Amino acid sequence: SSSEDLLLRTTETNIRVSREDLDTLVRKGHLALENDWDALQAFERIERGEQKSTEKKVILPESVRKHAEEIDTALASIKVCDPAIGSGAFPVGMLHEIVNARLALAPHNGNTATPYELKRHAIRESIYGVDIDASAIDIARLRLWLSLIVDEERYDTIEPLPNLDYKIVRGDSLIGFPENWQSPSFQEIEDLKKQFFEETNQDSKKELKAKIDTEIQQRYSDSKRIFGYQVNFDFRLLFSEVWHQRDGFDVVIGNPPYVQIQKFSGQQIQKDWEKQKYETFAKTGDIYSLFYEKGYRILRNGGVLAFITSNKWMRAAYGKKLREFFKTKVVVEQLIDFGDSPIFSEATTYTNILLFRKMIGNSQTKAWDLSSSYTAKTSLEQVLEARGQAMPVFSAGGYILLEPRLAAIKKRIEEIGTPLKEWGVSIYRGILTGFNEAFIIDGKKKDELIAADPKSAEIIKPILRGRDIKRYRVDFADLWLINTHNGYGNVPPIGINDYPTIKAHLDRYWDKLKKRQDKGVTPYNLRNCAYIGEFRKEKIVWAEIVFDSAFYYDTSGVFPEATSFVLTGERTKCLTGMLNSRLLTFAFRAFYAGGDLRGDTFRYKKAFLMNLPIPRVVGKVQVIIGILVDYIQFANQTDIKLESAFFEQLIDGLVYELYFPDEIKAAGKEILQHLGKLESLTDNMSDAEKLAVIQRQFDRLYDPNQPVRNAIETLDSVDVVRTIQAALKK
Fold first, then answer.
1. pTM: predicted TM-score of the whole model, two decimal places
2. DSSP element (H, E) containing 63
3. CATH number of the domain within which 247 lies
4. Cβ contacts of residue 620 below 8 Å, gap of 6+?
5. Residue 9 domain-assigned (yes or no)
């Protein structure tokens, strides 16, 4: 369990016992509880001559037995905090692990404390928690109390629960006094708390609590005046004894909330978070990032944090600051990525477990990618043992966990390719009307408007929605944009009075047009779109959210709608073929996509796509892939599927050969050298002539004796190709 691992990591830094032996104590100590007592007694009987031999063996290693007293002392004084305690599940888990380990040590250090006494000690000395929700605090306290009394055999002699008023506390973990700020009252409050915890007389206890609360509230009431923000909880103030004894917690554990910071935009709480000077703060980010940093701040040097949180930080743009924080401030010792596996039955989340130590170093991170192999019903330890470790690949663009074979593929792709952002291409979002009902019309309405005033045709343009764009084709839905643009470059805005029929159509929506936040110079005009002229150029269009790569090469001047993107620049036809290839589909999805959608869909956002490394092909290969794109798109228009599929496979093979030339050559699967000359399709050809060209080339290359066909059909015999194809099927 995570609690076992935390206990192990915390203990191993303080005691001169091997990691393996401590592992036996923490993970198998419960088996030693009765066994070791019996074994030791048997050994004593043998020494006294009362018994000849025994099959009993001591489970705990000799080094643990030898240092049992030191280890027990460390466990007795450990300090654990959950800064978003909720129902208290994680601290209760730690409580059980501490007690079980101490019980396992008891036969070897003479400790005769009962489980009840050990639990009571741990609750009083070791467990701390905070939550902003008062009901969560009540539940956590109750849970600790129940976990205690379950081990008390005589309820008539049960002692009062250790007072948790200053251990499990309501408050905002993220807002506190400035780091390293000290007040003389801290020591005074700590002294009063010591008296309070030991006091059993109820009247005296009430007096002490009132005095402590007054001192604490005074510090809080001064915070607004002194620091410029209101504090209602502070770790060093409430838990001052932890810093006095340890200079911070040994362990911070929890499952902090996942809430986007922008939901609090403009509110005082967001301003107060900014004033805490969190390095990980990003207005587009999530508060769990701040909890990671707060956890770091309240740890002692060498202390360990383990959180289960959203894994969005690993790739999302807002996670860049948190990734940098992990890279420069801590040693990430373990990272388990569950992808979108259902960890919590009541919530849909992308989840990971991250464990770091508060120190600077270069320790190798142990990482596992369980995105496709874990369910909550499975034992996590069994899965981790059965599944090999992944290689963590850390970069400014994100953290990803890869099997060694995939890490090698990523390395090759980045060696051969050039990130698209260095190509000199431009990517733009499709047009946003602000009111589609008025500005996007069907073919019938378009015909009506043009029939009434032929001049209307000047500003009515075909438009594609994201859902209309497929792989190498578009399914035009007969939708049209009223392009009353707001001007661009030297082109002035459209004057609506020049198009009276269109004005009459838009007047039907006047009330809503007038209220639009994103209108142009008049309510009739579309919002500013400085790049609207780009839509008339040769371009690639694609939908943002897709199940598979679906790029289309367009020269018709069609306008894309806001659920799609366009790319303009050089070599767009060749680039269309490469982006649709299996290799680059795999590479984008595995290494560069943001990972923020569930299931089989992924998002071809500009920020992600610009990082995709693609070879800057020129000359023969560029021409060949461009010709094949023409073949495929024309074949799709005329619905000749076999030919289209074959030419797609041909592009796939050429792209594999670009990235993995040595592997392809060694396997005898080269395509380029056997391809011969491909005939181009030209604008002055009739459809029948184009079809004839495609058929001739297909017949030539699809011949059973053609090396090209043989290479395509057996390409998966190449190990790297087989690995990529298997990954695409997941």
1. 0.74
2. helix 62-66
3. 3.40.50.150
4. 672
5. no
Closest CA to 649 of 570, 715, 729: 715
Supply φ then ψ for residue 63, to 5 degrees.
-65, -35
Paired sense of beta strands 351-357 and 299-310, if any: antiparallel
**pLDDT confidence of residue 595:** 57
pLDDT band at 154 (very low <50, low <70, confident <90, very high): low
Please tell me the predicted confidence (pLDDT) of residue 687.
94
**pLDDT for 635-668, tens place per residue?**
999 889 999 999 999 999 999 999 999 999 999 9
The 10s digit of each residue's pLDDT in 282-300 is 988 899 999 999 999 999 9
638, 662: one domain: yes
**Strand 391-395 to strand 398-402: parallel, antiparallel, or no bridges (unpaired)?**
antiparallel
CB 256 within 8 A of CB 310: no
**In the chain, pLDDT over 90 holds for what percent of residues?**
48
Spatial distance between the Cα atoms of 87 and 129, rounded to a whole number of angstroms: 10
- 324 and 264, same structural domain? yes
Identify whether residues 213 and 122 lie together within a single domain. Answer: yes
Q: Alpha-carbon distance 219 to 222, whole Å?
A: 5
Tens-place pLDDT, residues 567-587: 999 899 999 999 999 999 999
Q: Are residues 660 and 521 in the same domain?
A: no
Domain of 506 in residue numbering reads as: 427-536
Kindly give the interhelix angle for 404-416 and 641-659, rounded to the nearest 10 degrees: 90
Looking at the fold, whether 84 and 112 belong to one and the same domain comes out as yes
Return the closest-CA partner of residue 127 out of 98, 170, 158. 98
